Amino acid sequence: MAYSRWATVEELKSKLTPVSYDSEIKKSGIPMMYDENNLYIKDDEAHTLVIGSTGSGKTQSTMLPQLRLAVKAQESFIVHDVKGEIYDILSGELKKQNYNTIVINLDNPTLGNNYNPLSLPYELYKNGQKDKAIELLENVGYYFCCNETFNASIDPFWNNSATSLFIGLALYLFDNAKEEEVNISSLLNLVSEFDKLSEEVKKYDKTSPTYINLSNIILAPNETKGSILSVFIQNMRLFVSRETLLKMLSSSNFDMTNIQKDKTALFIISNNKSTSRRLIPLIIEECYYAATNTNDKTRRLNVVIDDFENLIPIKDFNNMLTLARSFNIKFSIFIRSILELRNTYGAEGTEILKMVFGNIVYLLANDTETLEDISKLCGNQQTEKGIEPLITVEDLKLLNNFEAVILIPRINPIKSKLLPDYQIDWKFSDEKVALKEIENKEVKTFNIK
Asked: Which pairing describes strands 100-105 and 264-269: parallel, antiparallel, or unpaired?
């Protein structure tokens, strides 16, 4: 029987890529070991799961170094920047390196860039790619209308019906509205004129996607129809009740299709509200869709998601992770615990996700499920007392600051001391680039004549 042990320095060096602090690099990765002259990174295509409870040093030990290395490698990245602190730290160097920097600021929508969730599907639709537009609209509608957490006991009919309504309304707008009128305010306007809309839709070809998505609601009994409309309105009001957010979501002033082709840094600054929990995965979904439907995959796109377990479950995320590698897209997911991840994705979904991540970096946790999981994954060792865990639950609770237990394929578990970002001289610009104010435009909406 084979027993576990900690990987040696020599074994680590054979698996990792050395990077000096002041040299150019070809690929980025999360640092897993340091010496006097180099940091050692795993720069392949494997996705990474970072586990660390609040205050464990996730940002300093892993997120910031990874993003700095992405800049050094001239790679693109999307990052969920919970407090806007990462933007403040990196904005000066990104300006110096001539990055296309985009900021979707859900915390203060008066600053940064405009983002309209309907812009990309609208462009696809108008360019003759109607099937792709509808496919993307199905995903966009999911984030606006789905349940906020995994719950197998909830009847999916109402949310699925609200999603069909969303798709049908959006397609009607694509056919009839001016480009500046294609926004979520116009969707609610159509609902307020639903009787008029129903008469218009009845004129459509019965095989058209617009008719197919709206007919079940139009032809439903009044009580059912009223309930579906109520669920839809309740979900959409989250986004139209804040005037500044509504204006920000009514237009787009950046091209999502160029995020991977051109060196781009996209920051999503959030505020932990229900709107953010839905919009963050939606933005990531649309960026992923745009990147995977363009021809240039030369530049790596890094997707770094903090507070992942607090977001609406990303649709078909397991499949997204599996396919991402072939499109040169690499995910790094940051969570506080396996327990919270299970609350969002369900037991089966969480187990599948854990298998897809090639790298697991454990920093600290205080829930039994996470501690037992990591201890089991590290395996058992032979000691004088018999067979014991390589690292016990109690030992995992007591890791020192910036100590990490790292699990990667085809090597024994790693116990490493990581350096916090503030101790590394990256020779980056420390300029802080102020965010521009969003132009205060009137939101134009569509009304049935």
From this structure: parallel
Domain topology for 9-111+255-423: Rossmann fold (3.40.50)
Packing angle of the helix pair 209-218, 222-240 (nearest 10 deg): 120
* Rounded distance between C-alpha atoms, residue 204 and residue 202, angstroms: 5
CA distance 385 to 98: 60
Nearest 5°: the CA angle 88, 93, 97 is 140
**Three-state secondary structure of 419-440:** CCHHHCCCCCCCCCCCCCECCC
pLDDT in tens, 241-289: 888 999 999 999 999 999 999 999 999 999 777 889 999 999 999 999 9
Predicted model pTM: 0.95
User: Residue 22, SS3?
Assistant: coil
Rounded alpha-carbon distances, angstroms, from residue 214 to 65, 126, 207: 48, 20, 12
Q: What kind and span of H or E run contains 416?
A: strand 414-417
Instruction: Domain ranges for the chain, please list them.
Output: 9-111+255-423, 118-249
